[in-house]
């Protein structure tokens, strides 16, 4: 992979992670289709089904045991939407199962995370290619309800979130441009360089 090309915002290597290419993948540079990605209207939490709730429960586990860093191999990734997270062949559309079994096509687990960010349950830290998730107080409240539901013998498809007026207020919306900018500058959410990145090839500002 050409490190100069990889620094261009919006370009990623499919199946590539910090340990190198995923098994069976060659490091082909792909362009993230931002227009398709950004035009997706978030699915309201009241319409979530099995895939949203299981993904939220998975994120909670990663926050508890892995510092909020997801394992992309555990998540559905449509390479047309999120090529930077692709890790399996996606020959046929694998839709997201919504409330009542309704299907949402061109929607993967990373799209579910986008919906969670829009609902104020999850903060997307890190960068667009190396995400680190953090649950908000609102997200923790919903995860607590999911655990209670599952411990009582329920399943993800049958989970009903707590009433809106019982949840903590929504935090300020997270700007996707903020994530893209950190990706362009290779910075984490707190302004530190991404682990293993030595810095830009050229100064970002005017030279003295």
How much beta, percentage-wise?
5-15%
Radius of gyration: 18 Å
Average pLDDT rating: 74
Major beta sheet, strand line-up: 1-4
Tertiary shape: globular
Overview in brief:
The chain is α+β, with helices and mostly antiparallel strands. Helix content is 29%, strand content 12%.
List the helices and strands and how they pair.
Blueprint: H1 3-6, E1 11-13, E2 16-17, E3 20-21, E4 29-31, H2 34-39, H3 50-65, E5 96-97, E6 103-104, H4 109-118, E7 122-126, E8 131-135, H5 137-151, H6 176-185
Antiparallel strand pairs: 1-4, 2-3, 5-6, 7-8
Question: Please, could you describe this protein's structure?
Answer:
The chain is α+β, with helices and mostly antiparallel strands and 208 residues long. The protein has a domain of 126 residues. Helix content is 29%, strand content 12%. The protein is built from 6 helices and 8 strands, in the order H-E-E-E-E-H-H-E-E-H-E-E-H-H. The strands form 4 sheets. A two-stranded antiparallel sheet has the order 1-4. The chain has a two-stranded antiparallel ribbon with strand order 2-3. The longest helix has 16 residues. It is globular. The chain starts with a helix and ends in a 23-residue tail after the last helix. The N terminus and C terminus are likely disordered.
């Amino acid at each position: 992979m050409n490190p100069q090309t990889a620094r261009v915002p919006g370009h990623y290597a499919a199946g590539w992670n910090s340990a190198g290419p995923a098994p069976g993948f060659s490091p082909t540079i792909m362009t993230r289709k931002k227009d398709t990605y950004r035009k997706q209207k978030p699915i309201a939490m009241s319409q979530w089904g099995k895939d949203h709730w299981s993904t939220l429960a998975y994120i909670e586990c990663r926050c508890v045991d892995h510092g909020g860093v997801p394992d992309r191999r555990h998540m559905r990734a449509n390479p047309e939407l999120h090529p930077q997270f692709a890790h399996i062949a996606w020959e046929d559309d694998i839709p997201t199962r919504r409330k009542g079994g309704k299907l949402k096509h061109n929607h993967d687990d990373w799209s579910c995370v986008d919906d969670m960010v829009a609902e104020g349950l999850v903060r997307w830290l890190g960068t667009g290619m190396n995400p680190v998730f953090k649950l908000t107080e609102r997200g923790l409240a919903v995860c607590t309800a999911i655990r209670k539901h599952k411990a009582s013998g329920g399943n993800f498809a049958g989970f009903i979130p707590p009433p809106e007026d019982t949840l903590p207020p929504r935090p300020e919306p997270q700007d996707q441009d903020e994530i893209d900018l950190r990706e362009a500058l290779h910075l984490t959410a707190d302004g530190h360089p991404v682990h293993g990145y030595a810095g830009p090839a050229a100064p970002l500002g005017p030279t003295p």
